[in-house]
Amino acid sequence: MTKARDVDPSEGIEQYIGRTVQDARLALRKAKFEGHEWTQSYLATRVFVAQSRISEVETGDVPPDTELARNLEKALGVRSGTIENLVRILNRESVRDYAKPYVRRLSEAQMIHDFGLIVPGLLQTKGYASALVLAGQAGDPKDMKRFVDQRMERAKRLWEGENPPWMTAIIYEAVLRSDMGNPDAACEQLQHLLKAQEQPNISVRVLPFGAAIVSGSFTLLTLSNGRRATYTEGFSTGSYSDETAEVMRFQKVCDRLAEDAESAQRSSGLIHEALKRFK
Length: 279
Hints:
Elements: H1 13-31, H2 40-47, H3 51-59, H4 66-76, H5 84-93, H6 100-106, E1 109-116, H7 126-136, H8 141-159, E2 166-172, H9 174-177, H10 183-197, E3 202-207, E4 217-223, E5 228-234, E6 237-241, H11 244-260, H12 264-275
Helix pairs in contact: 1-3, 2-3, 4-5, 7-8, 7-10, 10-12
């Protein structure tokens, strides 16, 4: 039987989560709850992950995502929200400072207008997001994986919520041509865009070659209370603003780009054509 590693919960939220999970598991093992030994391997079978994943959680090396947090709470008999809420706090804290206001307001958005030279984060697949992170970041692979997982979770919460927003995404045609160094991920991403296009609340429009473009990317949010905000992002930098003048400036840019963009129907045809290059 593997000896439990002593984790100092004062080191950080990851370690506090790990200690919470470990203490709950060891308490069940001591009581031989339901006649089981409650090893990491046994807990792993209860929450449908590998034993190594439980080890990562308990040591604080890689915290759980919210789905695993909920499963751990149920399996260990921990009060609902005890672990999940800590994970949500951790996810917010690990977002770059300049992006925090945007992430907080995203859940309140009723309408989203986006332009970018890459597929917007809310419409990215995991493989595509991973390729982007790998190209643009250097560091611990565990941190990079967490960044991608958080992006996927934000999108899932938004689109699977009770009242998902309306989204219009304008993407430059060059996005359809790049294989990101991973043709399989690029193919999957294009298929995902077509699937998103079928949703009544999502419109993907392609800005063709030859049209004027702007550098970086920007997003316009219309919140449930009617207030509006804009978020711009470049490489390792970004800016959030709810100043009316700034929002109107980006609205004008968005309108001009929309005038030159293909219709949603024509854009779907361009995506289908691009897919043929990867098959």
